[in-house]
Amino acid sequence: MSSLLAPTDLSSKQSRGRNSMPARAALGVLGLAAIVAFWWLAVAALVRHNVLAAQFGPLAAWRALPDLISEDRLFAHICASLRRIGVGLACAIALGVPLGFVIGRIRAIEAARSLYRRFGAHPMLD
């Protein structure tokens, strides 16, 4: 009975294994670097067709950051971005949820969707 109540050291050994703090931090930094690299490549691909796209690259954002902080405009820009995300999410929910109910409720639409999934151009949507 006492062995059931005694704490085991197994969980602490497992947590110190491959999920150590430096390894998780390195994965986080690697993920952030991958996002910035993808951002950089996407802007570089767009600059060929649109010169205005260069203003939205990581280097331009990094250069503008001190001015945004010193002029106390960073919080306003963050709020504007979060507001846009919220409006987009609200629109998606307001349109998507009722549309999903309609598609699930009307058998003809469900049958058409089923046929499209079976014979359509996108067999990976199963």
Order of SSEs: HHHHHH
Describe the global form. Answer: extended
Strand content: under 5%
Q: Pick out the low-confidence regions.
A: none
Structural class comes to: mainly alpha
- Averaged pLDDT: 82
Q: What is the CA–CA distance across the termini? A: 52 Å
Cα-based radius of gyration, to the nearest Å: 25 Å
Could you estimate the helical fraction of the residues in percent?
A: over 70%
Kindly give the count of domains. 2
Largest sheet: none
- Strands, total number: 0
What's the helix count? 6
What key attributes describe this structure?
single chain; 126 residues; mainly alpha; 6 helices; 0% strand; extended
Description:
It contains six helices and no strands. The protein folds into two domains: 56 residues; 55 residues, no CATH class. 0% of the residues are buried. The chain has 126 residues and is an all-alpha fold. The model has no long low-confidence stretch (mean pLDDT 82). The N and C termini lie far apart (52 Å).
Secondary structure layout plus pairing:
Blueprint: H1 2-5, H2 10-15, H3 21-47, H4 58-70, H5 74-105, H6 107-119
Short description:
The protein has helices at about 1-5, 10-15, 20-45, 60-70, 75-105, 105-120.
